[in-house]
Amino acid sequence: MAGETASTRPLAGERHRRRGAIQGRVPIGSGRLTIELVPETCWVSDIREVIPPSAWEHLRRRVDADARHRCEVCGQRGGEHDTECHEVWEYDEAQHTQRLKRMVALCHRCHQVMHIDRAGEAGAAHAALEHFAVVNGCGVGDAQRHRALALRRWRERSRHGWSLDLQALRSYGLDPDLLMHSR
Ligand SMILES: [Zn+2]
Question: How far is the CA of 58 from the centre of ligand 1 (A)?
Fold first, then answer.
């Protein structure tokens, strides 16, 4: 957006990340905005689609409250709700297990970067790359290279099947086994 300046937003994020580190939160990767595409051979990309709506609402509210209603990456508020709830997955390349690491609270713009593969129009994808560059303090060219790398990793990972591990939901007071069967 034209009204937001590149100089203020990363600083807000930086401050937020430091506070997060003190609270012992698990950082996402390097602690910056990344693009991580879920392989098309995975059973689940959105937890929202496989658990009951009431459980999703519980999860979303808890993640938002834990983050004090601010984006855990850039520190901004945003969107229809204070924050949007997103899955952080890790991939065990040896066992081919897709494991939920944690949930993360994101503003709408950071969330769009994470789902850049779903950005329908070229304009939306470009806006996402620009936001990536501002938050990470890099150029749009770096953002494009990061996206290309994510796409290459996605193609590689989409060549085989993955088993699913949602045990991390227990730390939010949800039983993954019960939830998956009650949907
Ligand atoms: Zn954000």
Answer: 21
Q: How far apart, in whole angstroms, are the C-alpha atoms of residue 72 and residue 25?
A: 10
Q: How far is the CA of 91 from the centre of ligand 1 (A)?
A: 24
CA-nearest of 135, 147, 133 to 71 is: 135
Cα(5) to centroid(ligand 1), Å:
14
User: What's the 132 CA to ligand 1 centre distance in angstroms?
Assistant: 9
28 lies in some domain? yes
Q: Is residue 3 part of a domain?
A: no
Within 10 A of 95 (CB to CB), how many other CB atoms are there? 11
Please state the rounded mean pLDDT for residues 50-62.
94
Q: What's the CA-to-centroid distance between 48 and ligand 1, angstroms?
A: 20
pLDDT digits (tens, 9 = 90+) for 127-158: 999 999 999 989 999 999 999 999 999 999 99
Over the stretch 160-183, which tens digit does the pLDDT of each residue have?
999 999 999 999 999 998 877 665
SS3 content of the chain, % helix, strand, coil (to 5): 50, 10, 40
Report CA 2 to chain centroid distance, whole Å.
24
2 in a domain, yes or no?
no
